[in-house]
Structures are given as structure tokens and as C-alpha cells.
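Side project, low priority. Logging it here so it doesn't get lost.
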Amino acid sequence: MTRRLDGLTLFNNPRGSNPKRVRMYLAEKGLDIPLRNVDFGALEHRTEEFRAINPMATLPVLRLEDGSYLSESYAICRYLEELYPEPPLFGTTPKERAVIEMWNRRIELDVAVYATSFVKHQSPFFAGTLTQVPDYVEACRIDAMKKFDWLDEELATRDYLAGDAFTVVDISAYCRLETGKSAGLFFADRHENLLRWWARIEARPSAAA
């Protein structure tokens, strides 16, 4: 059963990995928040109107019932978890929460950063927002493969990244790595455990959110 939260508004873009992380989280939780799409192509995220909402000009942004705004996808998910703890995606015990935080940080800083940079340093979309270094693209591929080797070993003894249960970490990793996959960076055939994990996450209805 889906719970509609009409007092909230999620500023969204259908293509971004960060907005997808929140949408996928909402789908897993059975929550429905009204969406307001922001057009990247029309640079709506860089307008003065939007920067008044989020000076970082990034998505997603959650408008709260009191009229304030919360940005950063992980923070949005964490906020909603406090309000709607079932089913739990951030753990239920101090140790579970700590392990999930540990793994989310590892995914963001030690793995997904290469997929993100792989895209940013070659996509025309980012040409005007950062200094692109074309030679860095291949370096990202090489380093990503090393991290994939490590993750593949980790997944040899469990089904999900932070343990035996599906958590927000699997959402984070799937959304980030999906971006790299769309640009040509993905696991090798030798990454059998990672490929099984990917198929497991991709089969969840929330992956289509």
C-alpha cells in the first residue's frame, strides 16, 4: 500500500542519479511524494528562482511542510527514514546503522566517484560547469575496475553490500553505477558476484522508479 505525502514536494529530474536515489528509496518505502520536474536541458536548475531554493543548483530538493527546503539525496532519505522507519533501510540497531553508514561512505568515496568522474569528464553536459580532463576518463576506468575487484570479493559471502539485507547502500550503489554503465563503464565478466548483485537489484520494482 502506498502512502501519499501531499504536504511535501520533491524537485526532481528523471535523468539524474541523485533524484533517482530518492525515487527508488520512496518506492521501497511505499511513499508517494508529488514531483516537480526541473529541466536540466533548459538550465532551470541554474535560474535565480531555483538557486533561491538550493544555491548549489543541484537536484533533488525536498520542500518540507513548513516551507523550508532540504537538499542532498542521502540527507533526504535519512530525513524520511526518521519519519517512516518501516521497512527499515538504514538499519535498526546501533551496529547496523554504523555498518550502513560505513558502506555508504565507501561506495560514495571509494567506488562511485570513479563512475561519476568517468561521466563528468567526457559528457558535453558538464563542459560548462567543470574543467574536463579527457585523459582522466581512462584513469577512472582503470581505478574503477580495481574497486570492482574488491567489491566482487566482498559479495562472495553475502547478497547485499552492507550485509544480508537490502539497504539504502544498495540503492546508492545501483544509482551511481547505473550512470557509469550508461556511459560505458561497467563490471567485467570476472565480476560474477557483482553481476549477480546487479541482477538482484535490477529485478526489484523500485529500480524502475
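Brief comment: The chain has two domains: 3-83, 94-208.
Revisit when time allows.
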